Amino acid sequence: MKPLKFPHRSHGDCLPSYKSRFPFALFQRKLNKSRSPSAYTQKKQPFSNAVMAVGPYLPPRFSVAPMMDCTDNHYRTLARLISKHAWLYTEMITAETIVYQKDNLDRFLAYSPEQHPIVLQIGGSNLESLAKATELANEYHYDEINFNCGCPSSKVAGHGCFGVRLMLDPMFVGEAMSVVAANTDVPVTVKCRIGVDDHDSYNELCDFIYKVSSLSPTRHFIIHSRKALLNGISPAENRSIPPLKYEYFYGLLRDFPDLRFTINGGITCIGEVNAAIRAGAHGVMIGRAAYNNPWHTLGHVDSAIYGKPSSGLTRRQILGKYQVYGDSVLGKYGQKPTVRDVVKPLLHLFYSEPGNGLWKRKADTAFQHCTTIKSFFEETLVAIPDFVLDSPVGETPVGRDELFADIHSLLPPPYEVREQELLHA
């Protein structure tokens, strides 16, 4: 399919008026389909039958969050060796990168078939670039395409005018999601926060969800249950300083029953994942815990979340398979990837285990001269006791039982569509 042509969206204007970028008549027709304030108590067509469509894969009850400089091909290869059923996400890739690198796309978009189910996360604020990038990505057969409306990085939300800043412009997000959906046959989803700066009320969050879902076929939202602060704090601080408001997430489940929501933020182990699902979440996304402690997090996903057999592999066996992968990709793109690049996600595989500190010190030395993954392992794995290398995953960690215990008593007042405000936005 040839990408549609769209007006160029100036990057110098982060928030132009809604009317200038979406045909008003189309928005009005969408709203006319659900005029009453209680519209979200009923199913909407034609998209309700396609909610969280997953093809041959189990639904995304558990997914690993897209993380810049973390969820690259190397990490995803490791993650899939540990869990067969966790949904994996790429790092965010900007639409412009995909378009400009169209003759070098394998470096950015290629992955092994074993990584399915896998989601491509894209970012951007130019409709034509989003259309072209989506079409180019079709060749790689991702299972979903996710649009980033949650990154608080100053490079993204500031100079880039996308990421979480787009939550202030839901009309554009709806338009962008329609453009992406028009250029792919796979489901499209949005990852966002619960608010931005002072725009952090529950009704403002609901307005965002309502507009985007009314203007596009988006039926699945991944909600990071913190707002973002764009006042100069770092992305890391934005993962801890704004308070978690899980009551907003569970309010969305109540007020938008025809949509699907995955919860993200502050959940650190499989026991807490199951607690969130028992409270009603359709899915749970974990980020840093799945990266910083992959064995004890991902190792329980298949059995504890999906009720399926685990891989049964020990860490020694996983490293044997990873070695074959690692040595096959070294230097594939000139000088990259290096031994350090390939080994990076493995540095957390022995989190809190005996020998972990010595293993990392040996790794620092080995990076200076090892030219293969095999030689790296031969030099460093002597630091890890055999019983650690050969032991099974162990029992599922329980986590904080109280995390969602009283959540339904804390929900905000039900959302009512403020129709006149929407029509004249």
From TrEMBL:
Entry keyword Ubl conjugation: no
Membrane-crossing segments per the record: none
InterPro entries hit by this protein: Aldolase_TIM, DUS-like_FMN-bd, DusA
Domain of life: Eukaryota
One GO molecular-function entry: tRNA dihydrouridine synthase activity
Xref: Pfam families: Dus
Keyword annotations from UniProtKB, A to Z: NADP, RNA-binding, tRNA-binding
Residue span, DUS-like FMN-binding domain: 64-372
Name of this protein: DUS-like FMN-binding domain-containing protein
Species this chain originates from: Juglans regia
Lineage: Eukaryota, Viridiplantae, Streptophyta, Embryophyta, Tracheophyta
